[in-house]
Amino acid sequence: MLDVFFSSIELQIMAVGALVGIASSAVGTFLVLRGNSMLTDAISHSIVFGIVIVWLLTHQQSGWFQLVGAALTGLLTVFLTELLANTKRVKQDAAIGLVFPALFSIGVLLLNLYANDVHIDTHTVLLGEIGFIWLDTTTIAGYNVPQALVSMGIVTAINYLFIILFYKELKLATFDPALAKTLGFAPSILFYVLLMLTSTTAVAAFDAVGAVLFIAFAIVPPSAAYLLTDRLWLMFLIGAFISIASSVTGYYLAVRWNVSIGGMMAVMTGAFFVLAFIGGPRYGIVSQKIRRMHARRANAL
């Protein structure tokens, strides 16, 4: 079984896409519930600044230094956003729109000025190319395993370990931060740790899928899950299922139509969201119309 998996490029690509989706939707669930989902967009763009700064300081294009630098840049993005919003002169969404383009632009300028001959490409950072993940491998137990599969597997495990260990605290901090603070759960610290994990997930996903697909996976599956259930633990399961299904169907449709694999995976997350929006058992358009129809009939009697 392992021989088949590690020798199949198709399975490797779909597995990496699924892991990116599972890891991203896990942290994205809390951001969607908090109404901070667009922070994933801000973080995924602004950490280009962190990637370039780390390279200027260490001359390393990958590794833990890049992960730490990106995580700190993500926190810087949120800190500057909240600093602007707290002035009451701009709203939260406007603050996000001011901060991340500035950091992203500075990162691109530094890249062009000081790292123009280095393989840190803004096009790759934003779009990636999941179809080539099998070219960059590492050897584990005698098997050549895509580096992206290893890194995303580790990040996925870390994200879910954090959620499992602090599930009650995260749940309370998400739905009632005032009560969480009263009980001493430090919701602000939990939120910043969550954002650090979001930044780390974004960087780990860059080489394989780029920022655009990361944003789609972080926002769309949790949003679709929210339309299908009111239970938090079930949102994680549904988000993971949508991520896996989007990766598998997106890959085969991309091959069939000869289009971008990552782009088609993102499109499929949208397709599943539309299905949830239309056919959700509680918030879906069809179910709401049926309930209104039954209510009218009951009133008529």
Automatic annotation (TrEMBL):
User: Does the keyword field hold Isomerase?
Assistant: no
The record describes its membrane topology as: Multi-pass membrane protein
Q: Where in the cell is it found?
A: Cell membrane
Source domain of life is: Bacteria
Gene3D superfamilies registered for this protein in UniProt: ABC transporter involved in vitamin B12 uptake, BtuC (1.10.3470.10)
Q: Which residues cross the membrane?
A: 12-32, 39-58, 64-84, 96-115, 148-167, 179-197, 203-220, 232-253, 259-283
Q: Native species of this protein? A: Halomonas casei
Query: What CDD domains does the annotation carry?
Result: TM_ABC_iron-siderophores_like
> What is the name listed in the Swiss-Prot or TrEMBL entry for this protein?
Metal ABC transporter permease
Q: What are the record keywords, sorted?
A: Cell membrane, Membrane, Transmembrane, Transmembrane helix, Transport
- The answer on whether this UniProt entry bears the keyword Transmembrane reads yes
Annotated family: Belongs to the ABC-3 integral membrane protein family.
